[in-house]
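To whoever picks this up:

The nightly regression suite flagged GAF domain-containing protein as changed. Nothing in the input moved, so I suspect the structure step. Input below, exactly as stored in the fixture:
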Amino acid sequence: MTNMLPKSESLIIAQADEIIMNIDEFPFGSLLSFRPLIDYWRQEATQPQEMLPVPLDLLEEHFVQTPELAEPILDLKILETHRESLELLLRPFFPTFSKNPEIKAVSKPFSVDFFYTSQPFQRLIGEQTSLFPEGTSPTARRQALFWRMLYAYKYILNTLYQLPLTVDQPQIIALPHPQTGLDRYYKINGYGPFMRLEHKGRLPKLAPDTLDHLVDNFHNLDLWMQHLPPRKFTFTGLHFYNMVDVTVEEATARLERLTLNQRGGITEGSFEQLQRELSILFRLPDIRLGLATLQGDNQLNWTTTNKGWNSLLIRSAKDFNLEDIQRSPYGRAIREGKYLLIEDLARDSSGSRIEKALLKMGVSNWILSPLYYQERLVGILEITSPNIGDIDHLSSHKLKRVLPFFARVAHENRERFENRVQRAIKENYTAIHPAVEWRFREAAIQSLDHRQSNRPAEPGSILFEGVYPLYGAADIRGSSELRNASIRDDLIAHMQEAGRILQLTRDSLPLVSHRELAYTLERKIRRIEEGMGPGEESEAMEFLREEVNPLFRHLHASYPELQPLFQSFMERTETGTELLHQKRAAYESSLQRINETISNALLRDQQELQRIFPHYFEKYQTDGVEYNIYIGPSLVKDRPFSPIYLRNLRLYQLIAACEIARKIADLQPELEVPLSITQLILVHSAPVNIRFRIEEKQFDVDGAYNVRYEIMKKRIDKAVIKGTDERITQPKRIAVIYTSEKERTEYARYFEYLLAHEYIEPSIEYFDLEELQGVQGLKAARLAVALGE
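Regenerated output under the current build:
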């Protein structure tokens, strides 16, 4: 029978957890017989010029003396009495003198109990006669049985069905090395050149689609046994096994699989597995693995007590600091980005505190290798040994095989840790500005540590002392009046539309209640046009939502002939559930365009300004945009502060205000509702302290002395010129508010620069301002922006 199917070229790859097999023993008939081998030697003797390893007459003499070897052998003890004949038959397949003696054995078909082995094989398994003696794990036995059955079915399909099925996944077994005790991995190649297959009764027929189905479900041996019952097949003859040491390849593959499975984070168990496979790869039982992950700020996390990355030294570190790291081989490996090997730490130590600590831990041999993920340094792999010279430069080729796997783990560790830190920051604080993120990270990590050790995990206090504030605001002039006007116009339009529809439905539905409703609508329109009083806006909205709109929805649904009258109303009010909002939508659209323009202008240069010197920046968007900037030495780690950075920001603030005024002027023709803005800048030369308020999720000035600054920010938008009712803030103008002559002198220099570069007009005005509640002594300069009109 011949079945040539596309699936015959398929590769079968099995995974242990996919096996479906409800048996514990090899179910096929399997008989040991030397008949196929004897026939082979006789056939070879007939070939011209064929030189047999043993003269045929000597073999024939043994065959005559031991005829039972040609019959199926049920008791293996008979082989002991015919050892000489056994040697003559099998020795040619086990060459004694070879540069690479094979790890080889013979058994009955598909058995793992051997009666003849090579010396390397015997040294490997010792006194055993089986690859799976007593004490072997059930999982290993089950996998071995699966492979034997799969190869048996492959033999059946190849021999009886002429289907050249390919099984591309070899069987790998682990055997402990006699000296080191570490597992070594061997690939088992089984073959049966002297094996025959017999079947009882009629050969089961297999349709092409059935064969396809079996190949697709190679892991389901219960299915195979239904279509090809094992009781119908018997294998007779000899089975040869050849084992190849694939420890390096298999340990590497297992390390890759283990690292791929660390999505949930490295556990104690998985770390031990990684260390064991690394020991197997290097064939060194005493080495220890460490994995140090860099934080998002590219520093080793030396402060947290929750060390999930398993760095050898970091796990036991108590009092090391950043300077200790930088002076140690860790710091050097990070800086240089190359692996470092110390074959004898006692001899080659630079004397750093970290190296002294490692010597106390019993480390003599040490290698550090930076880990790169997508060309980004994410961590360090460390391997140590108590034995001098265990790890040398020749080991580096094995290390290169696995570095990408550990780099991926370090990257995922880093991402998980950063996510936890960010969650802690957001839970305890808020989304914070990158310039001060380092301080929030420290507080968040401390909180995580406390939580891990079951201590109170209250969020830490965030305080920055002695910082210089800058404040600015761009407000929509008359925003409240414009919003109220748009709401009023929409309410009137809604009621007028409702009255028009009621008039059109009068003939079809002559209801007195309709006339009463139309009267009420007219009365409300007149009152709103005369000017809405307190509460009238909400009262009108409630009237439309609770009485008019429900009625119109009912009429639209109940009277199909009236639906054309309601069509426009229903579309404009979301099927009669909302109020008309055309004018308000136009106002809000214009407001949004202006706010986006202001925000984009403020944010445009932030990246460059932060590069010059990091500072805190935040903005708030309402009817316009307000923003705070804080700059000072306490906001930044390990970087000196100079007043030049403050002056740079103050000048930038003025330039940005001028550019915002120009952009808003250019935007006016595109707005549905013309809106103008006013701008002010508050100058405050004295440094303040700012504290992050957990409840409000924002920074505020801290301390009674600094409260005056916050009061000024809240009230200066209402400031008027002394002796007048004129607001200091005006469209197309920038109001700069200050309190001291020193501040006026400094800003006069900036105004001169702005004038020279045509940001402002020459008409600079200076005013004293009326006192505000709690604020006295305010002065202002008012600049007219050069708009180029």
